[in-house]
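ugh ok fine here u go
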Amino acid sequence: MSRHPGFADTEEALILKHIRDNTGMDTAQIAAFLCTTPETVRRWQRGTMRARGPALGFLRILGMNTRWSVRNAIKIGKFNLDHPKAIDSPEALENLAEFGKTLEDV
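structure:
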């Protein structure tokens, strides 16, 4: 695997490079998908900040995924941007289920 300029040799950076190479997503799209900021993604890529806890776990799950639907990832990112806070209502799971029906099977 060739080293991409701007990417450290950390686990997070390698996973993010994998995501970029397999999806073509840019930093803003990855940040929206992960519910974080573009600057956080850039710091993970450069190795100046390390992901911990749920963020690291989610990155690892993404790194294991070998079949990508860029369209789905971008839709999820847009959903996350449109709904930046958790919804405290009984309809929360219904809303997610309805949104899930709009995603393509991969």
